[in-house]
Amino acid sequence: MAANRRSLKRKLELDLVALESDGGKSPRLLQTSPPSSRDFSAIIRSHVDLLNSPCSTYVHDRAALYRSLHALSDLAQKEEKVDDIVKCGVIPAVVRHLEVPIDNDCVCGPYNFEVEKKCAMILGLLAIKPEHQNLIVNSGALPYIVDLLTRHKTSSITPGYIGLLRRVADAITSLAHENTTIKNLVRTQGGIPPLVELLEFNDINVQKAAAAALRTLAFKNDDNKNQIVECNALPTLVLMLRSEDPTVHYEAVGVIGNLVHSSPNIKKEVLLAGALQAVIGLLSSSCLESQREAALLLGQFASTDTDCKVHIAQRGAIQPLVGMLKSSDSQLKEMSAFALGRLAQDSHNQAGIAYHGGIEPLIDLLGSKIAFIQHNAAFALYGLVDNMDNIADVIQAGGFQKLQDGSFIAQATRECVAKTLTRLEEKTQGRVLKHLLYLMRFAEKAIQRRVVLALAHLCPIDDCRTIFIENNGLELLLELLGSSNLKQARVASLALHKLATRAISVTLVDVAPSSPTHQECLGKHGVNNPKLSDVTFLVEGKRFYAHRVCLVKSDIFRAMFDGGYREREAKDIEIPNIKWDVFELMMRYIYTGTADVSLDIAQDLLKAADQYLLEGLKRLCENAISQGITVENVALMYQMSDTFNATSLKHSCIMFVLDQFDKLSSKPWYGYLVCSIVPYIRKFFSTLLGKPSSADS
């Protein structure tokens, strides 16, 4: 082993040449070519052998150690090599060299803390996996690391030691990353108090490294949070927030953010320590990361109580937060929307956010492909529409359409949007409705359209006639429906369908003309019964026995028997162009007042009912035919309704066309169909919205 160690040392002699050429000030190394993959494990093991061999504190021994550690640290920076390095036993070999030698010549020489610094650096690089983190701790590294943090109390503060403190704090950050067990061990082995002390160390890089370690230790660990606060870290962290160095206030705001997360008591202590104004100041930082952390922290502060929400707004946070909504950085948009969402749940802040232009960018963020951004924007808008003064602004900015038609990723967002739409509907009355009506009449065309589309879904049904008939709202919707812009036509179609559905649901009577109530005559036993029959019809060559006393309920039959027609005296009357089963079912309706109309026979029966002016039977036929309307036949069904004056069927066709825009709009005949039905849509709504509602009654 001694021979091998001497051989390794001879290979490293060139390091001393570089060191001496630098006057002994710092250990510079000559560049060496990278090892081949074939020799990689052998090279690692040769370094491990050297680290494991007995050594002294003499400069030449320390030089050999340093050279091996330097090579290992270079290799450890390649993440794909880390597993191989660990398998070769590097971790326990490195840990044994964390202990600072007592020899003053070594401490004060050219390798002043350099070996220990490289050891800490290597351990931090290897701690990228939980199993590596645990192996490092199980190898006994933590006591040495904590001891190194406290050496500044007894050792001379040299550049080498300052660098060592940074590397040790960095190693704690890597070891404790997402590892609850190690976070607890750092606390129980006394690592938190010296890290808090280092926040005031006379070197800015050490301060940042200590803050980064505390940030990691505080994340989702209540015991560590409490100890950090008990060690009086908050005053120093607040001062660091005000640093002109972006890298300093970034680490400080990160620590505070992790301390207050899910910890209401610590949140109060942080506010008492004077952090609020300093955090608001970071919204204007040149450091993007600090801006993100500050926005997130303000959102957490705003969750505390109403007073805190008001204080945040009063101290000028809203304007920079609104500006961040327009950032190209997605995380910054997410955090600012989060903060504004919490602030918007207070009535004092809702008008302020709108005043500073927050509504439009929040509406734009509803279209984000990032779930958290969508949700935060939706939650902010939910708060804003609680203020009646914001309703018209949200609607004229297109907010209703975005909420109504948006594709939202998370279920929680969809639920929030549904609550927002409900809140909009509840608020659309009184002065809000008057404001919207004013915009619909006098604003520019684009805003008029947005308003009328929203009102079709939101306005009280008792105000529909005022809005859509008396103030031209229906014409605006019909204009959009006939637009060559499919998007505009689609939203108009859906709005008209919604308006009709809402109106029909509260209208006392059908919009179609009412049909007379048909009374039973002789009943089902009289149908085609020769007993007492005084008239016979010839249908498809077969006799159908009937009774004039029942037939006179049809105006056509009454005219036939009472007028000057030849059928008046005829015993057998021929019925052309009607099939036997159709005629038989028509007669069953005349005799019984009812008929079981199937879809197969409904169209022929409708023609017969129209011919003999049997309005009640027509309605039964229309209802049956309406059940069979499809994308392919709706145009024919509408034509049929027009031919036979089938008002109820016509209404059903109109409702189908309005509801099925997405399927119908691709048909080549769709544009012609819409043009042909627009006049009747106008008549349909004029009739529908003019009828009394249940509320009026």
From TrEMBL:
ARM-type repeats, residues: 190-225, 232-274, 316-358, 357-399
Membrane topology: Peripheral membrane protein
UniProtKB keywords: Repeat
SUPFAM superfamilies hit by this protein: ARM repeat (SSF48371), POZ domain (SSF54695)
Pathway(s) it belongs to: Protein modification; protein ubiquitination
Pfam families: Arm, BTB
Stretches assigned to the BTB domain: 533-599
Principal localisation: membrane
Subcellular location: Endomembrane system
Protein name: BTB domain-containing protein
Gene source species: Stylosanthes scabra
